[in-house]
TrEMBL record:
Organism encoding this protein: Kitasatospora cheerisanensis KCTC 2395
Protein known as: Putative integral membrane protein
Principal localisation: membrane
InterPro entries associated with the record: DoxX
Keyword check for Cytoplasm: no
Protein topology in the membrane: Multi-pass membrane protein
Top-rank taxon, per record: Bacteria
Amino acid sequence: MPQSLMAFLIGAQIAGAAGVIAGLWWEPVGIAAAIGLTLYFAGAVAFHLRVGDNKGATPAALLTIASVALIVLHAATL
């Protein structure tokens, strides 16, 4: 990734984490944040695999699974 995009990517992760925490009080925000994190980490998996970085794809895949679990758990408590 170009260095110029790193600030945006870090900001997106921080916003997603803040949204998940805010979702403890307001469920729809948590679900939206978890969906955003799922897309973020799925994109990370795709880009890691695209450049042949299989070691980097594994943690991103685990975080994608964790984000999907957040969606399921938030949706189950509605």
